[in-house]
Amino acid sequence: DAGVIQSPRHEVTEMGQEVTLRCKPISGHDYLFWYRQTMMRGLELLIYFNNNVPIDDSGMPEDRFSAKMPNASFSTLKIQPSEPRDSAVYFCASSSGYTFNEQFFGPGTRLTVL
Amino acid sequence: DAKTTQPPSMDCAEGRAANLPCNHSTISGNEYVYWYRQIHSQGPQYIIHGLKNNETNEMASLIITEDRKSSTLILPHATLRDTAVYYCIVRVGGGTSYGKLTFGQGTILTVHP
To answer: Which of A3, B59, B60, B96 is the most exposed, having the fewest neighbouring CB atoms within 10 Å of its CB?
Structure first.
């Protein structure tokens, strides 16, 4: 198994631009999570899905952030418009209901907004 | 979910056991203890979890006190590759909060030669 796949691995953009981060979960996993990690705030859960349905988006910082999961093998996290304070590493993770909360994390996308 | 307290940093000599403590004095009866670690520039990695019995797997052992107010993660023979931030997380198993893991600041474990 290839594990959780995220793209791009690095993204540099200018303030005001739209940014789309992508995630492919492990096949067969029915939970997908988006996290953000910064030095100041540590690792924060933004949103998670179960069977492609958003369950809890209380961690999404504001309306500029949106996440979708159109099918079981793909999810996107979009920031529009991006701001310098969005600079962080964004992780996607997936898990199976049968592995009781063992979440498998992707390698992350390092986002820099200039 | 119960709050956890971990020392900010620890050192360990290579080949020795690393014992990482975690306090969770407000833990409830239906809350589990989870350990994850994050090696530099990588995503977090699951290590082990338990409810009240001690647990062991190929990576580590988890010792939970009888009153469940604290636990210790044991890496029996630490290697340089075990240098990482170790997170102790306490949360309810199942229910509407299923899936949510709240990461604190963790313990930076440095294994030195």
So the answer is: B96
Which residues pair with residue B70 across a beta bridge?
B23
SS3 label, residue B82: helix
- CA distances to A12, B47, B74, B85 from B57, rounded to whole Å, are 40, 8, 11, 19
Residue B98 with chain A: CB contacts under 8 Å: 31, 50, 97, 101
Q: Which neighbouring-strand residues pair with A54?
A: A49
Whether the pLDDT of residue A1 is over 80: the answer is no
Asked if A4 and A106 touch (Cβ cutoff 8 Å), the reply is yes
Inter-chain contact A48–B49, Cβ cutoff 8 Å? no
Residue among A93, A101, A105 minimizing CB distance to B49? A101
Asked if the C-beta of B92 comes within 8 angstroms of chain A's C-beta atoms, the answer is: no
Task: Give the pairing of strands B9-13 and A109-113.
Answer: unpaired
The answer to whether the Cβ–Cβ distance between A103 and B32 falls below 8 Å is: no
B105 touches A42 (CB < 8 A): yes
Please write the tens of the pLDDT for every residue from A39-56. 999 999 999 999 999 988
Q: Between B43, B98, B102, which is nearest A108 by CB?
A: B43
